Amino acid sequence: MKHFTQFENISLAEQLIEQALQYKIDSRKHISKGLGKRVGCIFLNPSLRTRASTQIAALNLGMEPIIINMDKEGWALEMQEGAVMNKTTVEHIKDAAAVLGTYFDVLAIRAFPTLTNKDEDIEDFVLNQFKKYANVPIISLESAIRHPLQSLADMITIQENSKAIKKPKVVLTWAPHIKAIPHAVANSFAEWAVGCGHDLTITHPEGYDLDPQFTQGAVIELDQKKALKNADFVYVKNWSAFNDYGKIHSTDSSWMLTESHFENAPEAKVMHCLPVRRNVELSDEILDGPRSLVQKQAENRIFAAQAVLSKIII
Amino acid sequence: MKHFTQFENISLAEQLIEQALQYKIDSRKHISKGLGKRVGCIFLNPSLRTRASTQIAALNLGMEPIIINMDKEGWALEMQEGAVMNKTTVEHIKDAAAVLGTYFDVLAIRAFPTLTNKDEDIEDFVLNQFKKYANVPIISLESAIRHPLQSLADMITIQENSKAIKKPKVVLTWAPHIKAIPHAVANSFAEWAVGCGHDLTITHPEGYDLDPQFTQGAVIELDQKKALKNADFVYVKNWSAFNDYGKIHSTDSSWMLTESHFENAPEAKVMHCLPVRRNVELSDEILDGPRSLVQKQAENRIFAAQAVLSKIII
Amino acid sequence: MKHFTQFENISLAEQLIEQALQYKIDSRKHISKGLGKRVGCIFLNPSLRTRASTQIAALNLGMEPIIINMDKEGWALEMQEGAVMNKTTVEHIKDAAAVLGTYFDVLAIRAFPTLTNKDEDIEDFVLNQFKKYANVPIISLESAIRHPLQSLADMITIQENSKAIKKPKVVLTWAPHIKAIPHAVANSFAEWAVGCGHDLTITHPEGYDLDPQFTQGAVIELDQKKALKNADFVYVKNWSAFNDYGKIHSTDSSWMLTESHFENAPEAKVMHCLPVRRNVELSDEILDGPRSLVQKQAENRIFAAQAVLSKIII
């Protein structure tokens, strides 16, 4: 594994999950493995869990993490090839990426989509510029279209909580939100859930189809009630429209899960990547009740990142 | 000691002072004590001394400090229980606190008061949400109503500079300022000075009474000249009105200490927590002269934090 | 060497270059040298290379670097001696410098010029306040008038790339820009290039003379074409006017280097400190072609900083 930016294959996924679960039991078992190695964590956007868990994962391996808030501490990045830089951007991404590649053994990058320039977002422009120019392994800390460390943590959480279930029914349900939200978490979750062999159903209001490259292999069921039936795990997430790119088509609050939604799925566990807008995306009732796995997902972010870093620095 | 958020009792205070003074002599004597332990330093407000001294204290114990500027790097926090989060806040404090509690062995929190919502400030809402939901020891890096690490450093400084004096006369004097300033430093200083058995007098213009829960045991003397008489230590601090909450009632510059104020207290030392507005709160003459202990207080912040962390991670 | 804020003498420069080149071969050879020592990196302005390379340099010596973004995380600094601080500044630089001096073994400071107050800039006010009050060694991470770590990295890069050339012809050429830019990089480069015995020619449009204290020993040639003839190294940099302080007199794009500028200097290498405004200061053609040394300069920033820290903490 050189980079970690997406789901690759089930064998690698199982290997990472197994390694993560070992680190969960003994987080410092490889404390000397990363000695003298450095990961640069480059943030072009805010972050709480990703920021903290990636640093901790690196420290657990004896690595030195260095955080750079590129958006606030560094220089405004120019993204366009061949640009005449006579406006507000100060440094071209290809120069910044190349320099950071000489400074670090691994680079971890967070770069959200524009949600306005669909073509640039779909080609995952910023992440791929780093891949192209940095010349070191790249880890995605959430890119324009994927959030693979989150999905790996989600797969770990599903495995931990489905010991008796052979092939759990997993439902990804759209939830209301007041802002236009990226597709990365939903895309990645679908990619990983199908890739890991789960039985995935996706439900959302009309007009909210995700990019089909991520949802193939999943059942699409626009009736949320039908979709939720017999669910073992329900992953809740808002996203903006993909076809009518970045637009909000619905804020229908009946899509927000409450206890009454689980009539036909009494044992279902509920997942969310956080941060969550309480009582908009998901009710207090669910988040504070026994169905919620959200804290376990967040905790598993450490061990997901640790497994990935460990595999990369071998 | 689980948390460190306020004065507890004189025996614990003396223990912490003694430990801090030992660390001042040999700062790395317990360099292996904190190995593999992590403190998350969560800032909702600016900080210089607290930020640097807490990191250094942790490193002196072999701990790994991780800084999170929640206000700038993370997500805007919702504070209200049961809120429908359809406005500007992105993450509920109870979710953030719980996640951070799973990531760190100790959490240190800076959260200033609103100075507009008196009820919320008085119950020290943000700090207590962390206490309630994080499930790990909490250290206050200045809360809405207290700044105990500052006060511990102040008590260390008084002890170091009063060897021959049995029960020093300590005066806390209000000073002018141009902005509405929190009560935390003044409250805590009163709480610790009385708690540690010092002879405390508080002086301020009319209308500047502090919350009485912090000042019991102190003499209140509104005549600054009388208050300063025979003082051994004079602690200078501005605060806004408490009763007429958060308001500025006086900017009377005669309250700013100059040499002439020390006619009847020739040996008095002057203290301030910094940052100080020179020639508004306190004159250059005093700050740059031999009475000033402000740099010693700042230095002792390291050893105060180190003693507290050391006690917590036992 | 107590401080590192400017060129001192050729013997010290050669020593630092030699040490840096050794660290480039074996970066962790002195990994125990800085154990228990701390460098505080204080940023009053943005930074990418300086921020990352200084941290890495410190870690390579076993030191603990702590970053403080004073402009964003700390308090607004008052610069004027004797100021009545009743406006927007919260802490006087002399208090902040003294505190930070008690917290760290070495302080590294980034403080750009105002470009409006020439007198304050010329006396390098902020840096010198730290020197005056911090009482520990000071490293400049770029001050109002110099950027010595950049220049040291530049000298290393010239040495590495001029093995067969006895006394390389080095040309510092002004380049267009859309904003008023400080003189620090140009000043320092001239100071170090002459100091290190290089044959330096400086070329710029009329009205762009640098402060003569930095350019003595260099040839000034206003005709860029003549200046570039037979150049071995061409250092490209914009700066604003010095005499008509901080003003932009020219944006003449013919000063931007393209391949056609190298007719009479076919072997010339091109240098720039980064960040670079592509196709404004320097063409893609040059930056992406074989003449460019800009990535090597950036990489050498680590070893320049490491040599300096190493010398200081002996």
UniProtKB/TrEMBL annotation, chains A, B, C:
Molecular function as annotated in GO: amino acid binding; ornithine carbamoyltransferase activity
UniProt binding sites for carbamoyl phosphate: 47-50, 75, 110, 147-150, 273-274, 301
EC number: 2.1.3.11
Any one GO BP annotation for this protein: citrulline biosynthetic process
Domain Aspartate/ornithine carbamoyltransferase carbamoyl-P binding positions: 2-160
Binding locations of N(2)-succinyl-L-ornithine: 142, 177, 237, 277
UniProt KW Repeat keyword: no
Family: Belongs to the aspartate/ornithine carbamoyltransferase superfamily. SOTCase family.
Known function: Catalyzes the transfer of the carbamoyl group from carbamoyl phosphate to the delta-amino group of N(2)-succinyl-L-ornithine to produce N(2)-succinyl-L-citrulline. Is essential for arginine biosynthesis.
Binding partners and assembly: Homotrimer.
Name used for this protein in its record: N-succinylornithine carbamoyltransferase
Gene this protein is translated from: argF'
